[in-house]
Amino acid sequence: MSADSDTDQTILKTPLNDLHRALGGRMVPFARYDMPVQFDGIMAEHTHTRTAAGLFDVSHMGQVRLVGEGADVALERLIPSNVRELKPGKQRYSLFLNDDGGILDDLMITRREDDLLLVVNAACKDADIAHLTASMPTGVAVVPMPERALLALQGPDAVAVLDALVPGVAELTFMTSGSFDWDVADLWISRSGYTGEDGCEISVPEGRAVALAEALLADARVKPIGLGARDSLRLEAGLCLYGHDIDTTTSPVEANLQWAMQKRRREAGDFPGGARILRELAEGPSRRRVGLKPEGRAPIREGAAILDADGANVGAITSGGFGPSVGGPVAMGYVETRLAEPGTALFAEQRGKSLPLQVATLPFSPHNYKR
Amino acid sequence: MSDRKYTKDHEWIEVSGGEATIGISDYAQDQLGDVVYVDLPDVGQQVEKGAEAAVIESVKAASEVYAPASGEVTARNDALDDNPALVNESAESDGWFYRMKLSNMSDLDGLMDAEAYAAFVEALD
Prior knowledge:
heterodimer, A: alpha+beta, Gyrase A, domain 2, Elongation Factor Tu (Ef-tu), domain 3, six-stranded mixed beta sheet, six-stranded antiparallel beta barrel, about 20% helix, B: alpha+beta, CATH 2.40.50.100, six-stranded antiparallel beta sheet, three-stranded antiparallel beta sheet
């Protein structure tokens, strides 16, 4: 269902590929795309994004339109979030669920005047498009948008930088979006992102993506940022990475994403895996995703087993690394629900050593959204 | 510096006064990126040529560091505990990893000298 089962191993390039190379990006394969993992260094890029503005190429992600009467009702059958109530210009985070209540992918949904705009993960986009195509009724078209690139400009200076280029952007608030013109390019800009910082995501016609990126990089406050810092930023912000912190075996309740399920849907349970999810909401899940703060300096990586004080296996790390803004290691993982309280002392087993860590409140680095 | 040797795994080893000092090459630190933690062997520990002797953690990943020779660890670079970035700043000097007493000098046979290693790295890029 993802890149793993895909037999076509062609390496894909985003419209910014040559620019990444010209900027000194160290390129790696990621979800079949040739992407920059770093430019100046992950630590410097991470810090720059938290203190100024970082430019990310997220064109590998899937942009998909749902067009036609009843698209919102049909989409709701696949996800546990409200779409019918979503007002034009408003954006919402949600999850595609399988019949067991496991997560097929996470996504952003925006209602526009004439369609619903979805942004899905690169590794899942082919499967998501197939799933949507199989699920939409006659009269609702699933329209992938490979002709558009997607840039993210993130950080405390991001909106000021973008507003100087595209006047009016500063009037958007968190999770709202709108249509803008820039130098005869039609942009769709949302005030959102995946770093925990204020900022925007910019959908741009592929032929204008390099020009827009260069115009943004011409501002001294902006630097190009690779996938390495994108990962450390989202981890500090407590945000899930699909295929790591959430997958087909984790439910939204286990993943502590029940905030993505609005009241009407939670009451009705009218989504895939509804019975399991309602039961977990009522009785509590058997395990929970939590933040985990290693006490030592060693990062604790994905896959490490989590042990209780008696040495019993009580969970596993799903994301772990070094948090440059925290100044130390940070991690997320699943633990038995009885151990999910912040402050609970646990251990992680890594390379034959038992390393102490504590359940921590997420996010590790405070969100700076402009609501 | 003439007796410094390098492995294909990008470790360096330099013998002086019966003791060998081991670290990673400048090329390796550049490839790894920002080093945030180094898990060093303990003094007194036996390390075996080709086996894992240390682990280096960059922001994005953990990488094993193999022993370029067999022997007993006689010192570890405690400065890396507080300042792992020394590996980035000075991989082939202040950022050394550990020292050891070699079991067998012939373990060094077949390792590259600086010139051969430079050519080896050149061919990788």
